[in-house]
Specification:
Two copies of one chain form a homodimer.
Chain A lengths: L3 E3 L4 E4 L16 E6 L3 H4 L2 H9 L3 E5 L8 H14 L3 E6 L1 H13 L7 H5 L11 E5 L11 E6 L4 E6 L7 E4 L9 H19 L7 H23 L4 H13 L14 H13 L3 H15 L5 H10 L8 H18 L13 H13 L13 H10 L2
Parallel strand pairs in A: 2-9, 3-4, 3-5, 5-6, 6-9
Antiparallel strand pairs in A: 7-8
């Protein structure tokens, strides 16, 4: 097991009717900005519940944080917070709204142009406004971690940042708030959580026995509940487990003390930036091909994955690995997510374009062994055609 | 899944040479009290490393926190802290030292007689001194939770307390510090962690899919590494996994959103108080018998445990449950921990005495269904003869 540091001070308030506890989590004197994405929280009553829970506090709203939140949009929220001297942020939405809120929290007190936050990967963050979240979309895990991704519209650069100062103080998670989500978003959430786990698990054996068992347990749970989450949207147990699994997939726990990959995400980000494909769909395109191309490096863990997650015990090593990759692809397809570039009307020209973007962003040594250079990325993308 | 709140702000610093990070975790101006148990930290060099890491800070030492730390001893530490105006506590040891340090942290600023902390189960704690830990003995999980148990020598009352104010700020965990522990303490740690997990897992099915998988993964890991931890004391991977598993067993995660039992602990505490049997040994005595007596209430989870932890698939339901209980008992015995009252020279008179103590302490409705009354406790103890 590698040495590690683990710290996660976010308070989780989980369950039906958990929104009623908002009042006790925010100072009575707070001047609050509620940050929102589209109009779903307004239409399904969640926003009304939130504002009711906030009682007499001064509350402003900021609407329109887009999927893959943009620097340009978020800087409007920063201006509003500064102008109105607001001092507490409340994200109501999914990963994009929460990521955006983290950026706003850090940007408001930032000295200088906040783009520096993104250029430094978050290292230049020295303080942030306090904030909480009301999660409505299980997927990214942003509700219980200290990272985010922001896109600059002008250049389509999609940049991650991370800082100890941008953990949510609390996250309220009510599974019933997911009942009215479009099936597409639920399917995306299932795949997003799945790939968050594999990025921290499908590397090489490193002796993290609990980490491996936890990762396998989360993957098995997703395999079991993924299709059910689509078939029976109002099944509380299924949605509750999906919500909690997606949080545990990326709250730092399963990645502590073990190697991590993240090449699927890096390549996927370029696909989203260039072609506006949903984040989770880009992961479903890249992962199966990456596992195929990197099968030698990942051999030990792929065999463990085959046995413990998919219960594959027949055939020689390579046959079992092939089956595990095929099962992974089939699982993504089973929740309605296509896994080939061609399914998104993309061909070889997209391979060239993505490789060029990876080059431009200096992403020439990806993966747990830093050996996914541009040639390997090209092979992965070709295998995904 | 039940509704839950989860919060755990303790920072974990894990790995070989992690003690060097102590300096960055404690204010430079702190006046520190180091709290210790026996002399092992002094003899094996850990104390020297700790004091070296603390540099120029003012440092006092308090020695002699006993296993099952006593109110009487801890109040001496409270007096020292008050007299010398110390403002940061550092526990160096295992669960008893850490539990004791939590009590001291809460008792120093407490208004009135600190026994009130224990009488209220910790509810009367409104503030506590900041403290950290250097863990030397993997077992109780106290390094990453907010609970403790303190015994009043005069009456042999063993009382638990819990409060949001007594999470360690940090815990430094260096697996190599466990190399020189006596085998008896390692074996106790394995069993203690195992039973912490079963108390939160072997209840009734409640739809906590990730919680179940995590619990099963931790149990499987203990089964795999328990004997190895004794056979090869200097195997880093084994000791590292034991240390991290014991922490994860009781940091609140696997118990969030699911029913909990804790009857084994409550009955075991009385055995320790009356006969001075090591805490873990009392758990090894009680658990197998409790599972036998409560098998109807726990049927669903016992079958799941049999299949997922022990891979028992042959025989009818009752046969599989019998095998799972037998495997549990055999596992405890395999690390050298006897599981019968008779092995500790106790007979029927001990059953009467423990039941009388349970009665005296009002522990007449234990377990996840609150149906372990004094008669059931008596049956459990009789089954353990």
């Amino acid at each position: 097991m590698n040495s590690f540091s683990f710290y996660n001070p976010t308070r989780i308030i989980f369950g039906q009717d958990s929104l009623s506890q908002l009042d006790s989590q925010i100072p009575q004197s707070a001047r609050v900005l509620i940050l929102l994405g589209g109009n779903s929280a307004r239409h399904n009553g969640t926003l009304d519940e939130v504002t009711a829970a906030l009682g007499e506090r001064t509350v402003f709203e900021f609407n329109g944080i887009e999927p893959n939140p943009s620097y340009e949009t978020l800087m409007e929220a920063v201006a509003l917070v500064r102008r109105e001297k607001l001092d507490f942020l409340l994200a109501v939405g999914g990963g994009s709204v929460i990521d955006g809120t983290k950026f706003v929290a850090a940007a408001v007190p930032f000295d200088g142009e906040p783009w520096g936050i993104l250029e430094s990967g978050g290292q230049r963050i020295e303080r942030a406004l306090p904030f909480g979240t009301v999660l409505t979309l299980p997927a990214t895990g942003s509700e219980m971690n200290n990272g985010g991704v922001v896109t600059r519209k002008a250049t389509q650069d999609k940049l991650p940042f991370r800082s100890q100062h941008v953990f949510p103080q609390f996250s309220v998670m009510d599974p019933t708030k997911t009942y009215t989500l479009p099936p597409r978003q639920i399917a995306n959430g299932v795949v997003d959580a799945f790939v968050h786990i594999t990025e921290q698990y499908l590397t090489y054996p490193a002796g993290g026995m609990a980490q491996d068992r936890f990762a396998e347990g989360l993957l098995q749970t997703l395999v079991e509940i993924g299709p059910r989450a689509l078939e029976t949207p109002q099944d509380y147990e299924t949605r509750a487990n999906l919500m909690w699994v997606a949080t545990l997939a990326l709250n730092g726990l399963i990645g502590a003390g073990v190697p991590q990959d993240w090449a699927t995400h890096m390549i996927g980000h370029e696909l989203t930036a260039l072609y506006d494909i949903d984040h989770a769909r880009t992961l479903a395109i890249v992962l199966p091909s990456l596992l195929q191309v990197q099968r030698e490096d990942k051999r030990g863990k792929l065999l463990q994955y085959a046995e413990r997650v998919w219960h594959i015990t027949e055939g020689d090593d390579d046959a079992r690995i092939d089956q595990a990759i095929a099962h992974t692809r089939a699982f993504f397809e089973s929740v309605g997510i296509a896994t080939r570039l061609g399914d998104y009307d993309l061909g070889p020209e997209a391979v060239d374009a993505v490789v060029a973007q990876l080059d431009k962003h200096g992403l020439t040594a990806l993966g747990e062994h830093k050996n996914i250079n541009l040639d390997v990325s090209r092979s992965i993308l070709n295998a995904a055609l």
